[in-house]
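Subject: for your reference before the review

Hello V.,

The reviewers asked for a structural picture of the protein, and I figured it would be easier to keep everything in one thread rather than splitting it across files. Below is the amino acid sequence we used in the manuscript, unchanged from the supplementary table.
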Amino acid sequence: MADYQERPATTTTVIEKRSGGGMTMAILLLVVVVAVAAFFLVSSESRKDNAVESAATQVGQAASDVGDAAKDAAGSVKGE
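And here is what came back from the structure prediction:
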């Protein structure tokens, strides 16, 4: 007769690994920081553009005033 040996019962071990939770939060935080920085950068550029536009308007108005004053002075010299 054949000798039969008892084999140990096979066991299955399931290991559940939870990963990615910290990485997801880090990526989300990075996206929020980039969005806030972009907002302030665009806002800052807009304020600079508005300031330049305002200065150009004031320079144009000053040049117009000087031109009017020159016309008035020329008219006074001619006796108009």
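For the response letter, the relevant points are probably these. DSSP finds one helix and no strands in the chain. The mean pLDDT is 81.

Happy to draft the paragraph if you're swamped.

O.
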